[in-house]
Structure formats: structure tokens, C-alpha cells
Amino acid sequence: MNVLVPGALRSYTGAGEVQAEGATLDQLFTDLDRRYPGLRFRVVDEQGLLRANMRLFVNGLGVRDLQHALQPDDFVAVVLALSGG
Amino acid sequence: MSRTPASAKAASAKAASPSARKSAAQHQVALVATRKGAWVFHSDSKRKTWTASNPHFLGHTISHVVLDPRDGRTLLAAAKTGHLGPTIFRSTNLGKTWKEAKQPPAFAKPTNELPARSVDHTFWLTPGHASETGTWYAGTSPQGLFRSEDGGVSWTPLPSVNDSAQFRGWMGTVQDGTPDGPKLHSLIVDPRDARHLYFGMSGGGVHESRDAGQSWSTLIQGMEVVGGFDAKDVSFHDPHCVRLCPTNPDRLYQQNHCGIYRMDRTGDAAADVWQRIGRKMPKRVGDIGFPMVVHPQDADTAWVFPMDGTDVWPRTSPDGRPAAYVTHNAGKTWQRQDQGLPQSQAWWTVKRQAMTVDTQANPALYLGTTSGELWIGRDGGERWSNIARHLPEIYAVEVATVE
Fold it and tell me: Does the beta carbon of B317 lie under 8 angstroms from any beta carbon of chain A?
């Protein structure tokens, strides 16, 4: 499936949109980490929780549960929430 | 994965005459970690002029950048961003290129009834013993202790601290710690014994291990706590910075939330008591602050940089007049050092990692302010001058000699 990658993670992917696989969001990030080592831990913490200032959208719908099921043709957007300043 | 945020643009890189090449060969580097990136400042051989690198990791929150004294080339940087989780970057060429750690510090999944925790940021980095090439220690927020044995590429948690119910009780909650998260800091390796370790926790006391971190004992005798609380309760103790004297490893100095202390280890636990040497500081200045700096060759000499600790704890230079204070007799007397520093209306804050000293025969001090100024105190702090202004909020300053 297509995954939209925010600017802060493009040092890992080299591209703003990449392909990855997974039956859940959790598996998707495991696959992304296999393809782009180190990416997962920047987004998902060691207890399996989405980090505080990251947001995920599946086909435009906001999701925080990493066990959310995915379909092969879903579109997942990884988005930076407001932070910094 | 390799990323190169920016390469250092050092003055020493210029083609030069033989004498200039010699002067460039050995010089000081100041490693400045800030809330918005890191900078490397290279000196000339006399520490007179300093040249800044371009920013490394611009926009990343960098808590600490440390050079490995065992090879003089490897740098580790503790990083996170407003969005991305914490990691460690590693350079083996003094910052020309960086690679991310494969396994940054991360807490284990809970194996007992204790609440699960996630590392917010790595706060403190300490190279291991000279005999243990590749060993590093890291302290995190919330408080955790980690070790790497491969030069910082992969990190493993120390369960004797991280998963101990007793330590968890002493650590308290996030609300009990410093404003941007409770810290495990002041990781010290005894230069005589790789297995002898110290660390401090804000809050949670001072601790030591003599078996490379398998077991720990507390070192809080003599340390005071905020009025009305029980000094026997480890959780009430807030050491801000602990340093060991390199020429007398049985001597420790400490800047605490409640004063400045010295401990001379006796070999008898009952007699190992912190002495509040800050009582000899001027009353109008007090003995509260964050950094503690020890002389590289003289165990009787140490420096502090006092902060206003009255009423709501402003933590700014008392009376708006920044100054270091030095003792040359292990804390019996203190002298003010403010020549060259602003004489009024300078409400500086200097954090615990943001003041240090080089190891030259006539050492210079270095400090960074939260208002983004970098200063050098020549002749052991007797003559201060500015190196840089307009940096982001400075978290840490380390200085090292490099070829």
C-alpha cells in the first residue's frame, strides 16, 4: 500500500511516498523499519504506542490504535502534529 | 543508514604553512548541544580564536554531544525532535558524517508489576573506562541507565536500576522531576576501576556500584533536602551535578538543589558523608546552581555558577550579575570570578551540563547560557570573554583536545 511520509522521516525513506505492507498499522511500521532501518522507533515507542506528536490517517480517517486492520489498497498518511517553536 | 546534516567547516581545514599546520594539529573543540541543534567550535592552538561549524542536526533537540577520549575522533550525540522519538547519532570523524544508532536506548517491556515506561530523551552520555574500548553509558529521561559495548551502536538497559521497584520509588513520577522531565545524570566511571560507577538522579539521590552496575548502594549521608522533608528518604534528594576529581578519584564534588557538597571517600561507608562546603559561599549569592566543575589536575580546586534559589526559585544569576565562584582549598573559601562578564541586568541560566573545563596546564572554563551565549573563562575563570552569541538555548558544553 502507499504510505505518505512526512518531511521529518524522509532522511530515512528518501521519498515522500513509499510502498510497504502489513495487515495492521503495527505490522506496517515493522515492514517500514525493515525497509528503512530506524524509522519505526522514531514513530512508535518501545511499548508499542504511537508517539505523542505523530498522527496516522488511513484513507483520510484519523487512527491511533496500531492494531487497526489494513487492506492492501489502503492509503496511510503519517503526519506531524503541531510541535516545536 | 547514513545521514550528513552538515559537515563541520573548521578553520583548521585551510591549506596553511608548516607552523600554521602545527597550530591546527592540536587544538580544542567545544561541543555545544542546544534545543535546536549542535555546533562544534574549533579553537586555534592558543584558544584565542574560535570558528563555528555549520549546525549539525538543525532543529533537533540535542541534549549532549560527547567526544570519545579513547580515540579522539568518535562523537556521540543524544537527539530527538518535537515529533520523532529519541535516538543516538554517532560520528567517527569528528562530525563530518553521522550514522544513527541501530538500537537506541529503550526500556524493556515490563516483567513485573511496575508500570511500562518509554524513553523520552537520552540526557547524559559518558564514555566507559579507558580499558573498555567501545563501552558507553547513557542516562535518560525518565530516569534510566543504559550501556553500549559497541561504541554506541546498540544500547541495553540495566535492569538493576530500570526495573528495580526500589529505584522506581526513588525516581517518583514525571511530576517529581525537573521541568522537562526527570533525569538520570552525572554518570561517572572511576578511572582506577571500570566496575566502579556513580550516577545521580533528579530526583532520587546519588548511587554507586562496584560491580559494573549489577548492584547499587546510595550515597546521600550529609545531603540536605527541602525544609520539612525527611533527609533519610532517598526520593527527596535532588543532586544537580556530581563530579569526580581525576587526580584524586576518592574525592567527589556535588552541586545540589540544596547546596554545594564535597565527599572524601574513606573506605568506611559510615564515614562517607557529604560536607556542605557551600555554607562558605556569600549569603547574598547562596549555594544553589546546576553545574559543578572540577580542576583537571588539582583536586582542591572546583567551580560553580550560582543561580538565584530564593522564593520561587528563579534560577537566574543572582542580582542579574553572572559570576563563577572558585575554591582552591576544597571548599573552605570561595572567590568570585566575574571579570569580563556582564556587570548588571544579565539574568542568565546555566544548565548542569553547560559548564566545563579543558585539560590544559592552565585550564580555561567554558559555559553556555540558555540565552544562547558561549563564553570562555581564561586562566581558570579569571578572565571571561564571549565566543558566540545568538545560538539556541544551550543545554550542554563539552570541550576536548583533538589533533
Answer: no
pLDDT of residue B105: 98
How many domains is chain B partitioned into structurally? Answer: 1
* Nearest-neighbour CA in chain A from B332: distance (Å): 45
Question: Mean of the per-residue pLDDT values for chain B?
Answer: 93
Question: Which residues of chain B neighbour A11 with C-beta distances below 8 Å?
Answer: 1, 3
Instruction: Please check whether residue B348 lies inside any domain of the structure.
Output: yes
pLDDT tens, B264-299?
999 999 999 999 999 999 999 999 999 999 999 999
CA A38/CA B294 separation, integer angstroms = 38
CB-based contact B83 A47, cutoff 8 Å:
no
**Percentage of chain B modeled with pLDDT above 90:** 88
- The CATH number linked to B123 is 2.130.10.10
For B100, the closest chain A residue by CA position comes to: A38
pLDDT digits (tens, 9 = 90+) for B79-103: 999 899 999 999 999 999 999 999 9
The structural domains of chain A, ordered by start, are 2-80 (3.10.20.30)
What ipTM, to 2 d.p.? 0.93
Residue in B closest to A11 by C-alpha: B3
The answer to whether B146 and B137 are in contact (CB under 8 A) is yes
Give per-residue burial for A2-39: e unless 16+ CB within 10 Å, then b.
ebebbebbebbbeeeebebebeebbbbbebbbeebebb
- A-chain CB neighbours of B109 within 8 Å are 46-47
Nearest CA in chain A to B115: A47
Is B18 within the bounds of a domain? no
pLDDT at B8: 36
- Which residues make Cβ contacts (< 8 Å) with residue B333, sequence separation at least 6? B280, B327
Relative to beta strand A75-80, strand A2-4 is parallel
Q: How far, in Å, CA of B50 to CA of B27, rounded?
A: 10
List the B324-327 sheet strands across, edge first: B289-294, B302-306, B324-327, B335-337
